[in-house]
Description:
Layout: E1 8-14, H1 18-29, E2 35-39, E3 60-66, E4 73-77, H2 84-94, E5 97-104, E6 111-119, E7 122-131, E8 135-141, H3 163-172, E9 185-193
Antiparallel strand pairs: 1-4, 1-5, 2-9, 3-4, 3-9, 5-6, 6-7, 7-8
Amino acid sequence: MRIDEFDLFTFSYFCIPFEQIAAFLQQQWGNNEKYRLKQTPFKFDLFDKSPQKGGAHFEKAYFFVPKHHRDKCIMVSNYADGLTSWVYRITEALRGKAYSFCLAKDKQADTMNAFCCIERGQNLRTVYTMKDPKWTFYSQGAEQFFEEAHLYQQKLIRKRMDKRILIAYCARLGLDITDDLFWKSEQSILVERVAW
């Protein structure tokens, strides 16, 4: 599967129609000389093995509708945090909900597997395991319907939230992220900052 090519992969799933998000993007950045909006199919071209940590480079993000999931809107960015600041902003403005995911390969030096649920600009739920330098587990907010909370009691902290668990959570949300066709887009917009 394509996402296995990356050491770290982040994306967000909006429970908001693509058309509403596209209109919001146009309103926010369509006439702003610091940003460029371009209709182009989604490509895995924003980073090589993992997205960079934020602040020192221009933001880029694809918003797209997966080919076989026409009711979904997905965002993939070039920031390691998945540009969650944009997710908060969009869900607040459009009064909607989104789920953000961070999937990492096992046995990375610094690794994190996480998801969060954001609704109307507010964080409802965050769960993650992180190694920096020791393993840490964190859970905050109301448990979501797709979670298997008993997994969070495992003795090995790194096993409480890993890529396999996150893929299963995505499947319960109707996101078959292991299918390469999921990443083929019918409708897609690339938003990129071009100037400070």
